[in-house]
Amino acid sequence: MSAYGLLFLPQAKGNYPLVIAQHGGHGAPELVAGFWPDAPSNYNGMITRLRERGVAVFAPQLLVWDKGLEPHFDQNQLDRKFRHLGGSRAAFDLCQLRDLMNWLVGHPEINAARIGMTGLSYGGFYSLFFSALEPRIKVVVSSCFVNDRHRYDWEDWVWAGSALHFLDAEVARMICPRPLFLEAGARDELFSPEGFPPVAREVGAAYESMELASRYESRLHEGAHEYDPDGRATAFLLKWL
Fold first, then answer.
1. Composition of the chain by helix, strand, coil, percent to 5
2. Which residues sit opposite 68 in a β-bridge?
3. pTM to 2 decimal places
4. pLDDT tens for each residue of the chain, 241 residues long
5. DSSP state of 176
6. Staple partner for 29: which of 59, 161, 192, 204, CB 3.0–4.6 Å?
7. What is the DSSP letter of 128?
8. Closest residue by Cα to residue 114 from 232, 214, 14
9. 85-97 in b/e burial notation, b at 16+ Cβ within 10 A?
């Protein structure tokens, strides 16, 4: 299999910190990067903000793109085909991210000790789960995903026995003691903001129990289903990179 993404490097040669910037559902690297100015976007300059601060950014394409892109496929049907083989579409995407990570850490202009990940919606899902699996990710931002998984049990966000083992809070706690920023929108039109604070508090308790409260932030921003409208999540990433 081949993988696709956009890699943005600062103009001068160097050894730069890197952020993996993950698009959400129906998204694409070009949309996150602002290459489609006429397309509605709720990413609020996710990539641009980081590039302006001299950070390298990699935006991967995962199997959740829009119907307007090629090739056309049914995401849930593809997920079911993977499950016939003992996996899932989400697992395939996580394996793809792992192999992309292996390539990125070998790039001469990327500092392998300073890699973070951020994402919105589906991107928040992949940021959370991939960082739990991948210790080389040093700082994580998950936007507009964490919630009550009993309420939002989408087909590719649950699996056999998931409620008995790992829901959002447990997965987020697997990132600890690395820095973690969780956010949701108070006016989110997709996921009720009421499902966010209980999970966020549970994660925060884990950091506090280890006397690492400074490495964790959570908030309900005033926006809708959108990424970091005021730059606070970006500042967190840059601080810990």
1. 40, 20, 45
2. none
3. 0.96
4. 889 999 999 999 999 999 999 999 989 999 999 999 888 899 999 999 999 999 999 999 998 877 667 778 888 888 999 999 999 999 999 999 999 999 999 999 999 999 999 999 999 999 999 999 999 999 999 999 999 999 999 888 888 888 888 999 999 999 999 999 999 999 999 999 999 999 999 999 999 999 999 999 999 999 999 999 999 999 999 999 9
5. T
6. 59
7. H
8. 14
9. eeebbbbbbbebb
